[in-house]
Amino acid sequence: MPTTTKLQLWELRAEFALRLASLYGNEVPAYNTLVDVSQEVNEDFIRKNGENAERLGSIQRVTAERHGAIRVGSARELAQVARVFAAFGMYPVGFYDLRDASKSSVPVVSTAFRPIDADELAKNPFRVFTSMLAHDDRRFFDEETEKQLETFIGARILFSQELLELADKASAEKELVPEESTRLLDLATAAFELSQEPVDHDWYFKLERISAVAADIGGVPSTHINHLTPRVLDIDDLYARMEARGIAMIDEIQGPPNWEGPDVLLRQTSFRALAEERNFRHSDGGVRPGSLRVRFGEVEQRGIALTPHGRDVYDRLVAEVDNLLAASPAGTTRVEVAAQVWRRNLPDNERDLALTGLAYFTYRVADPAKAPTTGSASLRQLVEAGVLVPEPIVYEDFLPRSAAGIFQSNLTDDGSRDDGQLGTPYDIDRLSEVLGSRILDPNELYSAQQNASVKDAERQLCITITDLPS
């Protein structure tokens, strides 16, 4: 880390990610194995695939890339953590409702804090998936438990005033002097360290009977890193190598299948949550050791961002896979069924994925001599003539079903919920109100990046480009 000049937000972000990785590796040693195996897989993938291996990001970016996950308990805590992440150039993007994304009791709504500009993402794409407990949702919490949660969460302090003030300064000035940078990083990292304070045994396990996720949020005195996820270029290879090392993985890779066509959206898996020793305070006043299984090691493989049209197709394919799997003989795997469905319904190459409007791409001018000298031309004509080359935009965000699937695969039981009650309504606008600032729509960011590249191509070619995929 530089010591003589002011640090820019991306430099603070990169150092923050490194510090959290070191912290989490000390707390969950199996995470270090996951990182080591990820690097082995990526190095081997690059040797086999050459330049194509960096089609979705430079190896420098992929090697440094992490996404973290944390959980908070209230609107106040969510607004405060937003101030902390803004100090690192990370802003709320996307809305995720995990309450109905799986059969398990996962009473949270979420957003992700990340860089939003392409150049900032290229420098360091650290992102943190951040969930807030929906403690007012009657499907999970009765009135008494809701009030107990409000009291417990309202009494704790996750982020010191000094941290919040330094974070606000960094966010406003877009840089900090070395002394302030060091202090900000020290305080921010410590805020996500696992607390050594004893956990109230009866309160924690009351919540766990409702939801292990709720207990991890509202049953402990502080927040902490739930998982820290490296990015891998071949998640199937990673899965096999981890199991070969004797590390138990969850049953399947979440998200799209492995197939011969373009990777889209996000594939995720994890090793199973490990027992971690914690001290519990019991009703007799005694403090005795116990263990919890709430933290796991996740890994991801990122693909191409899909447009709203592409997401509609994706959702339809997922539903078709569910139906076919339910009617398939015992022993049939989701991956087998999904690969067949993908082959029938999706283009097997990037160019057609772009021209059918299923995914987001930027467009690079490759051979201007083949373009018309005046007037207009359609995007398809320019791509087919080789004037423009579509280059994929990486999916920077998350899938609710996959996130819930990871949670569910690491829970000891499904918890409880009363679906006879009405759920509290949440959407991106409601969570923006809770947060106190606008949560950005990922599609707006991807679309703006795509459109900017088309406008740049128009300037270079001095023509109008028509018939853009919508």
Given as residue ranges, the uncertain stretches (5+ residues, pLDDT < 50) are none
Beta-strand segment tally: 16
Please identify the top-level CATH class: Alpha Beta
- Domains, number: 1
CATH fold name: 2,3-Dihydroxybiphenyl 1,2-Dioxygenase, domain 1
DSSP helical segment count: 18
Largest sheet: 5 strands, mixed
Give the termini distance in whole angstroms.
43 Å
Strand content: 15-25%
Structural class by SSE content: alpha+beta
Indicate the radius of gyration in whole angstroms.
23 Å
Helix proportion range: 40-55%
Per CATH, the superfamily is Uncharacterised protein PF07063, DUF1338
* Quaternary state of the chains: single chain
